[in-house]
Amino acid sequence: MRILVTGGAGFIGSHLCEELLGCGHEVWALDDLSTGRLENLRTFERQPRFRFLEGNVMDSRWSTAWWPRATGSTTWRRRSGSSTCWRTPCAP
Ligand SMILES: NC(=O)c1ccc[n+]([C@@H]2O[C@H](COP(=O)([O-])OP(=O)(O)OC[C@H]3O[C@@H](n4cnc5c(N)ncnc54)[C@H](O)[C@@H]3O)[C@@H](O)[C@H]2O)c1
Q: CA-CA 20 to 30 A from 37: which of 9, 16, 54, 60?
């Protein structure tokens, strides 16, 4: 499955990316680097199944360009706490 992880360069998001890559998924991490760090992606950034996208999730370009191309997604809502939302079941 191709999964878009928002906040993927953050503490929780980067661990989620690593876990999903370990499960055999293709992972796209979207992050505006407001608090996240590219350093959090270092251990897997060269994996061919991983792609980093720098941008704000609120930018409508992401919803039209990337969301439709992902088959699964996770969402992290900073203000309201953790929220993981799968559009499709987690299976490679
Ligand atoms: N070593 C540790 O134990 C450790 C280290 C860091 C954090 N923490 C804890 O983890 C929790 C926080 O972790 P987290 O992963 O939620 O925070 P985080 O700030 O690391 O992750 C949020 C990510 O979302 C990104 N982001 C925010 N708004 C965005 C937007 N509009 N568009 C795109 N990207 C956006 C940020 O750049 C960041 O990468 C806290 O409880 C903190 O204390 C623990």
A: 60
Instruction: Please give the model's pTM, rounded to 2 decimal places.
Output: 0.80
Sign of the CA dihedral with 61 first, then 91, 85, and 21 last? negative
Q: Is 11 in the pocket of ligand 1 (CB under 6 A)?
A: yes
**Domains of the chain (ranges plus CATH)?**
2-75 (3.40.50.720)
Find out whether the beta carbon of 58 lies less than 6 Å from any atom of ligand 1. Answer: yes
User: What distance in angstroms lies between residue 65's CA and the mean position of ligand 1's atoms?
Assistant: 24
What average pLDDT does the chain have? 80
Is residue 88 over pLDDT 80? no
